[in-house]
Amino acid sequence: MASQPLRARDHQPVPLYRDVRVIAIMAQAAFVVLIGLLFWWLGTNMITGLRNSNIPLSFDFLRQTAGFAISEGLRYQPTDTYARALLAGVVNTMRVAVLGIILATILGTLIGIGRLSSNWLLRNVTGAYVALFRNTPLLVQLLFWYLAVILKLPRVREAIGIEGFFFVSQRGLAVAWPRATAAFSAWAPWLWGALLAALLAYAARRWWLRRIDRPGAAWPAALLALLLVALLGLVVTWLISGSSPLRLDRPALTNFNFRGGATLTPEFFGLLLALTVYTAAFIAEIVRAGILAVNKGQREAAYSLGLTPAQTMRLVIFPQALRVIVPPLTNQYLNLTKNSSLGIAIAFPDLFYVGTTIINQTGATVQVIVMIMAAYLSLSLLTSLLMNLYNARIRLVER
Questions:
Q1: Listed residue (329, 318, 311) closest to 293, CA to CA
Q2: How far apart are CA 87 and CA 340, in angstroms?
Q3: pLDDT at residue 9, as a whole number
Q4: Which of 221, 237, 298, 359 could form a disulfide with 187 if both were Cys (CB 3.0 to 4.6 A apart)?
């Protein structure tokens, strides 16, 4: 007997309590409600405790006078507000984080390449560097660089260095630094023109590479255009005004300290040194692993085309290794930024140090901690965004 087709009225709908889609939605809604109730209970408990302790919950304290000094960074006076003090702490954190990222990247890349060198001495020295600094706590290294190295440097009058360029002493590092002169305003339009020329050169170079369907980088042409226009403007401004738009401010020893140039305080110098040396050890391993991930056939093919080992590394191996290096490198940049909070151990006035000082004076623990967390979260998200954009730029394009 032939089978009869199933009619619509014979189809029995699945009950809601057995529908997988409904069950999934209900489970997620229940999870969200539970999380909300948990945070509501924690928040209510916190507010009750703070009220019982007569601790304010508003942010009005930000308009009050801070009354404590911050030794470096943003222009700040003890008569400024707590909001200004927090801003100075954020700026100091960003200063040490940006400089640390740049220096750790350079040092870590060189050490990572050195780990793969055929030279026995270089390979083992860089290997010992990684083993030493990767396996000891950052706090211990920070105290070592600050207490056992920087504070043991010669006194100011016995500073070591090159006259007029840099000096190292117990007061930190003093270096020569360019300063703007009265003729700088005449040079400023040339700088804007140099920036515009760089953008045009970058766009033109990218357009040309796409037209001839060849790989290549556009930033060298942009950099060259920037330097040429800026230098031309410098010469023209100098000839017209009779003075240079910039002068080199050299550090000079006065009665008790160096004046002129730019000075890194011992605390800033120590924290920057510890973060750079520590993070470079991890970056070196990331670079080494990224280079080893590139197929050996790529190197052999480059040699067969007549490229030197340096050209092979720069033009063939390293661009491909970057696709492996960048994701873990982002984590190291985030760690370096967050690890800068250890500067409190040597009294470096970063965001965390300034925040704890404000907590001790005002008792606004919750508000300040929330602001500190928000600041570190913003810095981390900004770093991740920039690195993700760069990663998308260098990723392999499949056709």
A1: 318
A2: 16
A3: 55
A4: 237
Query: How many other C-beta atoms lie within 10 A of the C-beta of residue 350?
Result: 27
Q: Are 280 and 332 in contact (CB under 8 A)?
A: no
pLDDT at 1: 45
- Residue 168 has what pLDDT? 86
What is d(CA 340, CA 357) in angstroms, rounded to the nearest whole number? 17
Among 187-196, 212-221, 344-353, 383-392, the minimum mean pLDDT is found in 212-221
Cα angle 240-241-245, degrees, rounded to a multiple of 5: 115
What share of the chain in percent tops pLDDT 90? 42
Tokens read off for 48: 């009750």
Contact 88, 76 (CB under 8 A): yes
Amino acid, res. 23: I
**Structure tokens that stand for 207 in this block:** 């357009």
Cα separation of the two ends of the chain:
56
Give me the pLDDT at residue 273, please: 93
| Amino acid making up residue 2 | A
